[in-house]
Fold:
Amino acid sequence: MKDLVKYIAKALVDNPDQVEVNEIEGEQTSVIELKVAKEDLGKVIGKQGRTARAMRTILSAASTKIRKRSVLEILE
Amino acid sequence: MASLETEGKSIEEAVETACIQLNVPKEQLEIEILNSGSIGIFGIMGSKKARIRATIKEEKLELVSEPQPPTQVAPVSTPVSLPEIDWVAEAKTLTQDLLNLMGLEASLQIKKERETLHIKIEGDKSGLLIGRRGQNLDALQYLITRILNRKGPDKIKVVLDSGDYRSHRKSYLEDLALKMAEKSKKTGKPVVISPLNAHDRRIIHLILEKDKSLKTISRGEGQLKKIVIFGVKEDRPAEAIPELDS
Structure:
């Protein structure tokens, strides 16, 4: 799941080398923390949070496949 | 109108003095040269001071904001013909990578029609790719569009489809719209269709557009809006949007 978020984030931003993804695994739910360069924050969030929402949708779809739950947190 | 006579070794100097005394920039002064002065021999003998009369221009505000003559318009950079982006290849790699990362195995077919890329995914039997009301498919389509358009200045549209989902959805929505329109006509009351996204709403608006006895409007805020279908009388313009209890 971490790789999926990392791939999408890197493709969206201007500074891919500053993309950091951390996965905190829980028993059922894992939290995925995404950190990007300050000026790229808008790129991963999108207008009205649309990009962030799309990423979360994709993430939960992919998590369903492995019978888990994943939560995406975008860190400032 | 403030006016002043000043002297100086040269006209420039006299003007400067006037500026200081009147406390205005040089541009706002009307200069009348009374005596241009002379340097004299070797600058020593017989030198006469320059004498001017400075008057503050009346329309100074206008003059301040006077548009500067266009300072050399930057030469219109002839668009450097960018290397043609191979959208199909780009989209193929991207989509395939995303599907792999999502743990889905499927094959792709990509067609480019003018500015639109049609990406068709085959082989997802679980329906996971489509999601509830196509939300997963729409999210993926949105992300692919974002990513592709980030790389090039051209705007490219992406239509992502899995199996025949899009066309099935379209005919389902059209059927629904016609059924609801019929209901509205029969009862004479407005009918509300549950919240839909912009693309789905468009399908409904378009199919009912032909029917002049009906009107459709989107109601609500955000991504998902309801559609209200209501009848209009031929002789009366559809001014009133019916009040709804819901």
Q: What stands out?
A: Residues 128 and 243 of chain B are 39 Å apart (CA to CA). DSSP finds six helices and nine strands in chain B.
